[in-house]
Amino acid sequence: MQKKEYFPHHITLVLSETDLSTKKGYKSLKEFIDLLREMDMSVISIYVDIIDTDIELKEEVSQILISQFESMVSKLDFKPKLTIYTINGDTYLESDSDDLHLIFSPGFGGKKEILYAMRSVLKKVEDGSIGIDDIDEDAIESELLIREEPDIIIRTHDKNLSDFLIWQSVYSELYFTDVSWNSIRDIDVLRIIRDYQKRQRRFGK
Questions:
Q1: Class of domain 4-108+149-198
Q2: CB-based contacts of 158: which residues, under 8 Å, 6+ apart?
Q3: Average pLDDT, the chain
Q4: pLDDT grade for 186, boundaries at 50, 70 and 90
Q5: Cβ-proximal residues to 188 (8 Å cutoff; 6+ apart), any chain
Q6: 3 state DSSP class of 137
Q7: How many CA atoms lie within 13 A of 96 on its CB side?
């Protein structure tokens, strides 16, 4: 491990709903959060891909995941700053704390987030708050739900990207694990951090 300044500030974890279909999945998530908190991580955002295509079923699965996540958070030994979004991008829960910030988003991806942001910007144009020429990156970013840009995105046991934080993650590092989520260990997480520290981030340059 290198010095603390080479540690990521914000880690995004992308899971599938099957990763959290057992108690072991949430046990692994709790251990993941505890370990990163020991490293003084500032933000952990967690996205869960929901496979079902039926809208009502997706909403039901999303609510179950939220309830299970809340139960896991209640077992943490600290009180995190907490933000939970519904599958429609509404804020389900928000609580403040000076500790680690946990963001949980089951099923609400980046395409919808950008769509909602653009609608908000266009409403401002419509009511005369801003002009067309005022629409720039800052105007769009100001309407995004999640402002924090992830330093690294971890995708568990999969080679496909999700669309979570697609605006914010344009310069993020990507890491695809070779192990399934239920089998992940602290040593695997430490290897991810070490791999990140070895990379030279260019931020699009």
A1: alpha beta
A2: 14, 16, 176
A3: 89
A4: very high
A5: 177, 179
A6: helix
A7: 0
